[in-house]
Amino acid sequence: MESFFKAGERGSSVGQEVRAGLTTFLAMAYIIAVNPSLLTSAGIPATAAVTATCLGAGIMTILMGLIANRPLACASGMGVNAVFAFTLTAIAGGDWHAASAVIFIEGVAILILVLCGLREAIMDAIPVSLRHAISVGLGLFIAMIGLADAGIIVADESTMVALGDIFSPTFLVGLISLLVTIVLYAMNVKGSLLLGIIIAVVAGIPLGVTQMPAGIVSGLDFSTFGAPFLTDESGVTGIAKVVTNPTLLVFAFSLMMSDFFDTMGTAMAVAKQGEFLEDDGRVKDIKPILIVDSAAAAVGGLVGASSITTFVESASGAADGGRTGLSSVVAGVLFIVAAFFSPLISVVSSAATCGALVFVGYLMMSEVTEIDWSDLLEGLPAFLIVAGVPLTYSISNGIGFGFIAYVVVAAVTGQLKKVKPLMWVAALAFLVYFLVV
């Protein structure tokens, strides 16, 4: 095991990797309940949605660990699953098979780009300052997710965002999660992020936030597997509907753009915590990560789980000591086990993960000092990424703002020579993306 994963070589141990994998799994466990709730809105049977969500996440997370050997975990992506349920299915006349086919086509297309080296080449063309900005923006985004899930920050019609109800049980669980994580980390307690989650789950029982499971064991339902090639009542396969519907093909392109850059940001965020981010902002051995992530999107469509992608919550496990793919294998196995015990796993509320996510956000802020804010070309596009990711609640949107701004500022300041050819391609692609979404 040591010769394969190289835990000792990376300053870790089997025990540390197992703990980190459990931390990552618990930080992502909410998807077991949330994703099926959205998929059922599209007409997918509830048990089939749980099976697809858990097995899809488990298989691809294990493959990420075995192939890339990095502490990254995969599951159905939030945001895309809502688009799947409420937009793609509606455009396809209520046929979730066709919606799954859109995801499948998008995944295959982006996998081809990775195998051709284009995705990695574009990442290499990104200026160093923007790479640092992506990490900072992701840190704020992760922290925002944690605070919002706990109700510590809420939407407000007058001020857009406001402090939540401090007497709300959800608020209190999130606060407990955050305080326990900070105290334990300050005391150098190993596994502080994981312990913060567990203690918050226990504290949530008397507060009514941690719901007792309705059962323990659940059955499996494979009826969504092969979704793009299954037929609806009319006898037409989902993939046939997509290739004959220009609107659905445009959505496939839009999702490809989103997936393309979401993963780039996520990989950088986790790499920062997992200590495999180089000084110039490059992620070490990025290609196998991108290959598995791209294949995961296609697999998500194939099994009817929406698009499976690398989760930014993986940074919580990396921050808790995960350095190798062994932590991913652990998280993946837990997802597969959860397919049988989903009622029990679902007791981990999103509020209980608040402390881990906010603390990871704090750790990622260190990248802000690497940006030259006195240089307009370096600073302004970086700022738009840092602000754009959390404020639009989209990794892709924030990166798009920064990329386009970089080209514009370079043009007006006479520094076009600094813009690499693929940076032009990326900026133009984002311009098209914003116009069609």
From TrEMBL:
Record's keyword annotation contains Nucleotide-binding: no
Chain ranges passing through the membrane: 20-38, 44-65, 72-92, 98-118, 130-154, 166-186, 193-216, 236-256, 329-362, 382-409, 421-436
Family affiliation: Belongs to the nucleobase:cation symporter-2 (NCS2) (TC 2.A.40) family. Azg-like subfamily.
Domain of life according to the entry: Bacteria
Subcellular location: Cell membrane
Key words, A-Z: Cell membrane, Membrane, Transmembrane, Transmembrane helix, Transport
Name of the protein in its database record: NCS2 family permease
Membrane topology according to the record: Multi-pass membrane protein
